[in-house]
TrEMBL record:
<feature type="domain" description="EAL">
    <location>
        <begin position="613"/>
        <end position="866"/>
    </location>
</feature>
<feature type="transmembrane region" description="Helical">
    <location>
        <begin position="32"/>
        <end position="55"/>
    </location>
</feature>
<dbReference type="InterPro" id="IPR035919">
    <property type="entry name" value="EAL_sf"/>
</dbReference>
<protein>
    <submittedName>
        <fullName>Diguanylate phosphodiesterase</fullName>
    </submittedName>
</protein>
<feature type="transmembrane region" description="Helical">
    <location>
        <begin position="229"/>
        <end position="248"/>
    </location>
</feature>
<feature type="transmembrane region" description="Helical">
    <location>
        <begin position="135"/>
        <end position="158"/>
    </location>
</feature>
<dbReference type="InterPro" id="IPR029787">
    <property type="entry name" value="Nucleotide_cyclase"/>
</dbReference>
<feature type="transmembrane region" description="Helical">
    <location>
        <begin position="202"/>
        <end position="223"/>
    </location>
</feature>
<feature type="transmembrane region" description="Helical">
    <location>
        <begin position="98"/>
        <end position="123"/>
    </location>
</feature>
<dbReference type="Pfam" id="PF00563">
    <property type="entry name" value="EAL"/>
</dbReference>
<dbReference type="GO" id="GO:0071111">
    <property type="term" value="F:cyclic-guanylate-specific phosphodiesterase activity"/>
</dbReference>
<dbReference type="InterPro" id="IPR043128">
    <property type="entry name" value="Rev_trsase/Diguanyl_cyclase"/>
</dbReference>
<keyword id="KW-0472">Membrane</keyword>
<dbReference type="Pfam" id="PF01590">
    <property type="entry name" value="GAF"/>
</dbReference>
<dbReference type="InterPro" id="IPR050706">
    <property type="entry name" value="Cyclic-di-GMP_PDE-like"/>
</dbReference>
<dbReference type="InterPro" id="IPR003018">
    <property type="entry name" value="GAF"/>
</dbReference>
<feature type="region of interest" description="Disordered">
    <location>
        <begin position="1"/>
        <end position="23"/>
    </location>
</feature>
Amino acid sequence: MIEHHRSSGATVDSEVPRPPVRSEVSPRRRRIFAVFSAAVLGTGALVSVVTSWLFPFRYEPDLLVIGPLLAAGFLLVEQLTIDVDAKRVGWTISFTEIPLIVGLLTAPFEVVLAANLVAGLVAQVGKRAATHVSYNAGVLCWEIAVPFLVAGACGNLFGDTVPGWLCAGIGAVSSSLISCGCAVAALSALGNGMRPSAGLLLGGRTFVVGLLNTSIGLAGYELAVNTRWGWALVTVVGVGVLALYRAYSGLLREQRDLEALSDVSLRVARSGQHTTRNLPASDTSAVSAIGERVSVEEWEPVAERIREQLNATRVVLRLSLDPRGGVSTLVAGAGQEEETATDGATLLRECPLLQLPGTHVRSFRRGDAPEEISRALRLRGAHEALVVPLRGTNQLLGAIEVHDRVSRWRGFGRADIRLLHTLASHLATAMDNRRLLARLRHDAYHDPLTGLLNRTGFRQMAAEALDTGTAVVLRIDLELLTTVSEALGYAWGDRMIVAAGRRMREYLGGHVPVARLEANSFAVLLGGHTEEQAAEIATGLREFVAEPYPLDRLVVEATAFVGYVSSVPAEDESEGDVDVLLQRADVAVRAARNGEDGVRGYVPSMGQIFLRRFQLVTQFRHALESGQVEVHYQPKVALPSRRVVGAEALVRWSHPEYGRLSPDEFVPVVEATGLVDALTSFVLERALGRIRGWLDRGLRLSVAVNLSVRNLADETFPERVREAFERHGVPPELVTFELTESSVMADPDRSLPVLRRLRALGVVLAVDDFGTGYSSLAYLRQLPVDEVKIDKSFVLGMGTDLSDMAVVRSIVELGHSLELSVVAEGVEDDAARDQLVRMCCDTAQGYLISRPLSEDRFEAWLWARTSGTSHDRRNDDSGETALHVI
């Protein structure tokens, strides 16, 4: 028989997946079901009276034995049930037809009805599910009265032509159909009605199972009554069937346990897939609060599934879902309102066993439990409880409480404990994995130092904002952070970055997304703002961020530059995505560095500058290979003899589209992109080839080549220089490497060893632009250099500014005191040259001597600008030709 009246919470709708999610029954439906229950009880009592009148009671002495046996039989089959899940329908198969067929054949109606009522109501009380007594009592009456009426009608209709056992069998099968019909009607009254096709399918299966049970009962009865020692054979068969039932029930239990484990694991995993994508990612407190609420709601099916699988009256989940340490309580089953409202001590906080190591299931009964546990059980109205902690890797994640099993008299068994232990292990692992995934997801979109969004998180937030409307992207760059890190250490620089991010959040509010893109570069997303509003916010933000930073007992000054761009495109440009907006904001920041107020909005003309820089970078290597890049030479003469001692190699680029490019335009771009090594190698190879040619013609002239900070950071550079000297056969002393102090001091730990190895090769090292950088006696003493070059800004100002003249004289004296050669750049008139001669400057370079010349023109200059007389063009002691400028 397929029973549904035994449990008021059962479901039979084949379209509803297991486990059924707990749903609240409306007051209106409760009233309808109350009326329906009263009707079932009333009609059941009426049909019982009619049946009793049709089948008068006859007392027999055997009834004193048959009555209790029938009651025991009904009660036994009520306990020996099989729960089956078939196509998402919960089936409870029992053997009620077996004692019923025996009662139809051996006892009066009143005795069978009394036995069924006593057994059914006792079973309901034993399961602690006596919440619909009127409905269940009415169905119990219908289940006995209808079979007697059907069996009597069949006997009256067919008489002696049909055996009595067949009429009784037809009546027993009708009992299961009556029970099924009442269950479907009850579900309809509660608002969970079935489709007609599902109802017919359920009725057909009910009929098959009822027919099978009835056949078993009839065969056993006939065998016991009509066969000698038949009762013994029936007993043996019954024991065998019972053993087979227990084995089959165990297999079904294991199958259902595995399905429950899989279902719970999937539900926990899916509950972590919900995101707070529509929330501002920068507002971490809001994200945490909403995430906790959503997670608690998503755990409801998990709690209900555990309660259903363990057949418990109530399951309480206590989960530490809040990262701030709070505990959320979720209840599935009876007593939810009281449990949720309870703010007293919980087993998670009270139970001392949960604070012990391990993850074992603890079983408590109110009678023999410790006082604190008994008090907690009384508070919940429970007599028995299984409690298991959910332990993660390093912390207690929560606990599961299971209260009072409803389906068996013996309470929770070993199988229940094993299942709960496995479920707890799965839940703890799933919660640990969710925490790990949440941390990984957070780290993937946030900066670890400041807690702000990183570039990836900002791109995602900006993309979502652009999908729903317009936005303005601000980019903020802080200055002086490198100086702070070098002077005080990187930890102090990090503190400034954290303080700057905190100021931005404070100024903009927690709802505005703020990101740290690079070391000292930040980005802000303003949704729904115009460019005028963005300009006002950018100005205020820059002033607030640039205020002095008090760090312990120090106050550090900072400078900020802000560039902004709107997602609304200008007339002559197309709409851009997030990356385009960030690129344009970066261009605006670069423009802001050259402005007075440090704030600039992007305009399309700035994009042309960026495009030009991009083209220069991408075309530079091709320019080297195709001959667009040339090496020019500017001569250097000794003072006061005016002897030509060498030249400086200067690079020039004749671009096919932009024409002649200044080195100040493309060299910084090339250096920033890592192509400067190729440029240095190109210039060095051309210079060595030119020196070799001069040596072959009897001229001994040196060439100066400029080095960048990347060359000084390359440990393989000295070895490559040595190989180039050997390949060209050029003495190292004819090559001068010019470097700036700023390039050396950018990373002195790496650059100084490289310089010492170059000096060991025999090359000449010169400090370029001396007087404009870190220039001091201390730095000169650290650097292994042979020469200093006075910056041309001081030489050009000697004629009009006495302070410049004093600087030049001081540098000359300082260089000579350190036994260094001194070169003056920017010599453009005779007066400057004469002054340098009087200061005893060693070498002069500038337009007075010559502008930078191409290789061919420099060769012509060497011969056309020299004297052909024997006293102006003569051999020195080494036999080489010496050239003097006229």
